[in-house]
Amino acid sequence: MADVNASTVPSLRAPLDLPSALRECGVVALVVFALAFALVGFRIQDVPGGLDIRYRFHEVVAITAVGFVGRFAWILLRQGRPFPVAVTALPFGVALLAMLLGPLYAPAAKLERLLIFGDVVVNWLLALFTLGFGGRAAWMIWHAASTITPEAREARMDRIGAAVQNASRYIGPLLLGLALALPFMPFADRRVLDIATLVLTYVMLGWGLNIVVGLAGLLDLGYVAFYAVGAYSYALLALHFDLGFWTCLPFAGIMAAFAGILLGFPVLRLRGDYLAIVTLGFGEMVRIILLNWYKFTKGPDGLSGIPRPTFFGLPMTANPSEGEQTFHQFFGLEYSSVDRIIFLYFLILALAMVTNLFTLRIRKLPVGRAWEALREDEIACRSLGINPRNTKLTAFAIGAMFGGFGGAFFATRQGFISPESFTFIESAIILAIVVLGGMGSQIGVVFAAILLIGLPEFFRELQQYRMLAFGAAMVTIMVWRPRGLLAHREPTIRLEDARPKSASAKSGGQSP
Amino acid sequence: MGYFIQQLINGITLGMIYGLIAIGYTMVYGIIGMINFAHGELFMIAAFISIISFLVLGLAGIGWVPVALLIVLAATMLLTSVYGWALERVAYRPLRHSPRLAALITAIGMSIFLQNYVQLLQGARLKPLQPVISGGFQFFSDGQFTVTLSYLQIIIAVLTVALMIVFTWIINRTALGRSQRACQQDLKMASLVGVNVDRTISLTFVIGASLASVAGLMFLLLYGVIDFFIGFLAGIKAFTAAVLGGIGSVPGAMLGGLLIGLIEAFWSGYFTVEYKDVAAFSILVMVLIFRPTGLLGKPDIEKV
Predict the structure, then answer these.
(1) Is the distance from CB of B251 to CB of B296 less than 8 angstroms?
(2) Which of A35, A162, A234, A246 is a Cys-bridge partner for A252, taking CB atoms 3.0 to 4.6 Å apart?
(3) For A318, phi and psi rounded to 5 degrees?
């Protein structure tokens, strides 16, 4: 159990109070047992003509035992006794790993028979869990003591965040260079490019939402609505009026911005959580309308045959229609289906960079400053003559516009859209990217998107465990770093005078 | 007229379920000021524990409905409240002094986690349950339409009212309720005068989870079919109900739940089923625009 109690300062080598430790372990084991008993112990089976129950009590017992032992290890670590933990956990974890990996190298070895759980993934979790404890213990032994308090850890992470933030003027171009070079790398096959395109889509959406959440401090749980509006605007315009991607792109943005204003106008005077729930409701409303307005949106069937974007009028197809010149003919290249993937990749890269540049520049304009001021203190802003509603409305509309651009890109990339792609979970993922990256941090969004979107995509085989791990990762990262991975805020503007003295103030990252 | 009364009955039944879930939202919000996004999943988990209990009891041959119902009710309330307790302990307590957005993200993460946890363990297919309680009174007829009040609806109403009485008694008369109200007014001050804040918050989650668990059981009995995704929509509706009634106010949550249930029932009865959620949300927006603190909420004065 990930029990992070901030108040436990490790006391060095206090004598171990075995009865109370065992009691604590017992309580944890009891809780774990109660959690696992019903849902793990009994599995509903679909059988013809109804439901049946299968019993898996051995797993409940095993999970309870893991809870007990794990808590004991936790107590030992907490009290600064890493040695027994390392001695037990490391060999055990390595043995588990060997059992899991063994069949890969020696098919004859039936080591996996020894594993407790029938489920490979559960065994993996157990192995990683054990190795985590062992590794932590080994780390503590290496550093001779567990003197690192949670506060010190926080401060260290803050310093890393600050360093990354300060170095972002180098990291940014470096990442951009890497992104530009990626399609020409030898390992960049179709799959890698697809994943990269997906990650960039979320980076762009994250940057768009960052304007609303990170800069203006408005909690928007329905961002996917604008994404949907953009996608459907493009798809419907293209299908009904035969317009191309580049003509429709501004329209998709405008429509989404309009939707943002439409929603924002009545609700933006609401406080944080009310605003969150209203935007969530709005997102669901848009989805329900898309689902049920069959004449207009084809409902659950979705819209298909959405045209692909062209390269300045040159289509990216193998067989052009009459009188058309394709991309590969124009440049005298051999036709390759990867070209289109690369083109889409560069397209989203360009869109994302536009979003980023826009955000970086608008922060320096009066309206951008007003957003950040509004986030910090609405009442102070009001008394300084800033109109909170109009200022918020611009943030909302601009954020929505970028969502709309993202949506248009999504539609053109997929060639098919249906309301299923615009569920709440998408909003949650985009918001998670913004918050996990560290609110308002542009580079944090990139890291969070790679972490949350890119990594799981490489584990497509574990598809069914993907969202489970995603949820767990969200919780773990937030518990570990409540202000986001790269949370570090520099004052946007500083009085010239204060600059030489600000070195000490710089290191203390201010929390929102 | 008959049709109207039937919709009224259906709406009240549904509204009671929403109300029971909404109380959990409103209590947690009242004390620690966070949207417990995973509360809807507790409701879903409760529905699953109920269906498992019914199936196990069925296999064990305990078929007498009152006994079976009581056992299932007890098991569900007990096991779901452990989930509520663990949720707070693992995911929310470490974040109590963090920015509110962090807690919200954790809650959303927990919600995703629990949904997928149940889906992995119990499968993604719809789980149908044979009706446990059937039949009812046909107590009113206006010639075209016969109004039916099913036994199940009566049980739901009686159970909800009983729970509300017990719950009101706990809040108003017991030491726990007193410390709970103290925490709601001022967390720091309450801890200064000796209220065990951690314990109170834990118990708030336990109470919220057990009320949601009864709602989950009722939902299972009423609709007879559940899947791992029911918690999301029910959770949003219940939260809407809590906001509608004025978040932080327990009677408001029940009132909001009843209103949402009635809106849904009448909208699906007289207009379209498809847009019933849109109707509920639109009402929410209207209420928030014209009465931002909800129906029974206290005005929130910000001091500078």
Answers:
(1) yes
(2) A234
(3) -80, -45
B98, A470: Cβ pair inside 8 Å? no
Strand partners, A44: A53
**A312 class by beta-carbon count within 10 Å (0-12 exposed, 13-18 middle, 19+ buried):** exposed
Q: How far is B147 from chain A (nearest CA, A)?
A: 30
Extract the tokens encoding B144.
């075209």
pLDDT digits (tens, 9 = 90+) for A350-409: 999 999 999 989 988 988 889 888 888 888 888 888 888 888 899 999 999 999 999 999
**Record: contact A2-B90, CB cut-off 8 A:** yes
- Name the residue with higher pLDDT: A463 or B65: B65
In this predicted structure, what is the pLDDT of residue A399?
93
Q: What are phi and psi of A51, to 5 degrees?
A: -120, 150
Report which of B163, B168, B190 is spatially closest to residue B179, judged by C-alpha positions. B190
Interface A:B, Cβ pairs < 8 A: 193
What are the helix (H) ranges across A268-336? 272-292, 294-297, 327-330
Q: What is the chain B residue with the closest CA to A299?
A: B274
Summarised one tens digit per residue, pLDDT across range A89-101 is 777 777 777 766 6
Query: Distances in Å between the alpha carbon of A297 and those of A232, A304, A406, B271?
Result: 8, 11, 19, 21
**Paired strand residues for B147:** B140
* Partner-chain contact A470 B112, CB within 8 Å: yes
Q: What is the pLDDT of residues B70-120, one digit of tens each?
A: 999 999 999 999 999 999 998 898 888 887 778 888 898 999 999 998 988
Q: Percent helix, strand and coil across chain B, each rounded to 5?
A: 75, 5, 20
φ, ψ for residue A349, nearest 5 deg: -60, -45
Interface test with A, best of B88, B121, B126 (most A CBs within 10 A): B121
Nearest to B113 among A288, A435, A472 (CB): A472
DSSP B148: E
The answer to whether B257 and B18 have CB atoms below 8 angstroms apart is yes
Closest C-alpha to B294, from B261, B249, B263: B249
- CB nearest to A284's CB, from B82, B103, B236: B236
Residue positions counted in chain A? 512
- Whole-angstrom Cα distance, residue A281 to residue A278? 5
Q: What is the pLDDT of residues A178-233, one digit of tens each?
A: 888 887 877 777 888 888 899 999 999 999 999 998 888 888 888 999 999 999 99
Q: What is the mean pLDDT of residues A10-18?
A: 62
Residue range A308-329: mean pLDDT, rounded: 69
The pLDDT value given to residue A48: 78
- Cα(A450)–Cα(A486) distance, rounded to whole angstroms? 14
A39, A291, A475 member nearest B48 (Cβ): A39
Considering only CB atoms, which chain A residues are within 8 Å of B128?
A: 50-51
User: Dihedral angle at the C-alpha atoms of A131, A135, A136, A138, nearest 10 degrees?
Assistant: 140
Name the token pair of B282: 């639109």
Buried b (16+ CB within 10 A) or exposed e, A438-454: bbbbbbbbbbbbbbbbb
H or E segment to which residue B226 belongs: strand B225-226
Q: Is this complex's ipTM strictly greater than 0.90?
A: no
Residues of B in contact with A472 (CB under 8 A): 109, 113
**Gyration radius from chain A CA atoms:** 27
Whether A502 has a pLDDT exceeding 60, the answer reads: no
Min CA distance, A40 vs chain B (Å)? Answer: 7
The structural domains of chain A, with segments of one domain joined by +, span 18-148, 172-485
Give me the residues of chain B with pLDDT under 70, please: 299-304
β pairing state of B225-226 and B127-128: antiparallel
pLDDT at A291 over 90: no
d(CA B30, CA B249): 8
